[in-house]
Amino acid sequence: MLSSKHRRTLERIFERPTRADIRWSDIESLIRALGGSVEERKGSVVLVRLGGRPKTFHRPHPRPETDKGAVTAFRMMLESSGITP
User: Fold this and answer.
1) Does the model's pTM come out above 0.85?
2) pLDDT tens digit string along 57-71?
3) How far, rounded to the nearest angstrom, does the alpha carbon of residue 51 sit from its chain's CA centroid?
4) Are the C-beta atoms of 31 and 54 separated by less than 8 Å?
């Protein structure tokens, strides 16, 4: 079961227009709460596994907020795994 913070993060990921102020740490926490995993790779690259589907992302830096392109890609990953708010 998702916490209220996880549910709020999920709702923000699906908002239109796409947000650019979602903290990457909140997305990582949501991934783990959904049963997925986040594996560190070289540099700022992370491998996210969710629903058997792996996808690479770049952890944002120096700011902690995820850009719109990554939010859109993560939304598509959630949808393909059958996860919606």
Assistant:
1) yes
2) 999 988 999 999 999
3) 13
4) no
